[in-house]
Amino acid sequence: MRKYVIMGVQGSGKGTQATLLAADLDLTHISVGDIFRWHVKQHTKLGAQVRRLVAAGELVGDDLVEEVVGERLRQHDWNYGFVIDGFPRNRRQAEFFLESYDIDGVIHLDLPDDEVRRRVLARRLCSRCGMDYNLIAHRPEVEGRCDVCGGELVTRADDTPEALARRLRDHHDKIDPVLELFRRKEYVTTVDARGDKASIQQTIRDRLGLPPYTAPAPAA
Domain Adenylate kinase active site lid spans what residues (predicted)? Predict the structure, then answer.
C-alpha cells in the first residue's frame, strides 16, 4: 500500500499529476478541491458556503477542510493506497496526518509566483456546463465558446489579480511551514512544475523509485 501527499501552489498541476499517478498504481485520488466542487454542483449547504468564499476570493477555512478530509479518509475505500492533494493545509494538520498515516512521500510541485499568475489568469470556465479551459494550454476551437456545449466562457469569480495575490500570500504563510516539517522527516521530493505533464510525471516516478510513466496511446 502506498500513500502520497502532493503539494503545490494553485496552478502547479497537483490534480493532473495526482490523477496520472493514481491511475497507473491503482491508488485512490483524494482531491479536496473536487470534493468541494461536487458540493457546489449538488447545491448542498456546504456547497453554498464554499461558493460564498470563492466569490469573495477567499480560501475555505482549515477546520472545514480538515473535517471534510477526515470524513473522506474514514471511508477506507483506498485498498492499494491514496494520493491526496489539497491537504494538509497547516502545521497542525500535518502533524495530525503524520500521526495517523504512515505516508510514503510528499511530492512538492515547485512553481514560481509569476508563472502561477500567468497560468491562473488564463483560466476560463464554461458558464453552461462547467468545462475548464486554459487559454495557454487548452484553447477552445471557437474563441469564447465551449467545445462541448457552445456555452460562453467566463473568468472564474476568484481568478482576479487581487484575489490571486491574497491566495498566494495565504499559501506561502501556511504551506511553507508544512513543507519544512515534512522535510525534517525526509519525506519531500521537490519537482519543477514548469515542464510538460508527461516529463513532470516521469520525474516524480524517478525520484520515488516507481515504475516509468507510459503515456496513453492517442485515440484512433
Answer: 123-158
Q: Is 179 part of any known ligand binding site?
A: no
Angle, CA 175 vertex, CA 198 and CA 51 arms, to 5°:
85
Residue 9, H or E segment: none
Q: Please check if 96 is assigned to a binding site.
A: no
Alpha-carbon span 97 to 24, nearest angstrom: 24
Would you say 109 and 191 are in contact if contact means Cβ atoms under 8 Å apart?
yes
**Catalytic site includes residue 166:** no
Helices (DSSP H) in the chain: which residue ranges? 14-25, 32-41, 45-55, 62-73, 91-100, 113-120, 161-184, 197-208
Q: Catalytic site residue 92?
A: no
Name the catalytic one among 3, 72, 123, 124: 123
With contact defined as beta carbons under 8 Å apart, do 131 and 147 qualify? Answer: yes
Residue 167 annotated to the active site: yes
Helix ranges (H only) for 141-218 are: 161-184, 197-208
CA atoms of 9 and 191, how far apart (whole Å): 13
For 17-66, write each residue's pLDDT tens digit.
Answer: 999 999 989 999 999 888 888 888 888 888 888 888 877 767 777 788 88
